[in-house]
Amino acid sequence: MTPRAGYHHGDLRNALEQAALQLVAERGPQGFSLAEASRRAGVSAAAPFRHFANKEALLAALALRSYQEQRERFAAAMTGVADPAEQLARFATAYVEFAVDQQALFDVTFGAGLVKADHPGLEEAGQQVLDVLREPAEQLRTTPDAAVDLIHTIAATAHGFAAFLREGVLADRARTGLRAAEAARVLAQHAGERLPG
What we know:
By secondary structure, this protein is an all-alpha fold. It has helices spanning about 10-25, 35-40, 55-80, 85-100, 105-110, 120-140, 145-165, 175-190.
């Protein structure tokens, strides 16, 4: 089998991840096989096993990439902003942008059905994303648990805006990001210390 353009000897892992991302974009995280990823990458069906035990391991590698990119994007969006509520508003906008710009990675994060405990590194990577948001949230809430509640509430709100945008319920990307940011500001500044229950 002749390797496709873009594949270079020694870069098999990246070639397989890129091929899998293309397939996820086309069919969703569960809509392809490891053999299909191999064909898309232009390598033999046996080649992936040098790096990935199975398809789930390949999806876990993509999820790790997703968490790393989220952490970098969210940290960059918050850089240079002093007000903690505004930092979380910037996070909300960056969340919507990530969901649109990196749809395949977003879908792997939330649709692959991965159990973090089964994949070393995923739990830590997810925690590192949370840690980017922890400081501003803790400035706005009096307990660590309340700060995490605030992060989850803002993230869930941003996730909803992102889903609406991707599903066509909302059409204007820029306006959707602004609405997510405004909702985050309101939650940061005015929501109660803890959610009910």
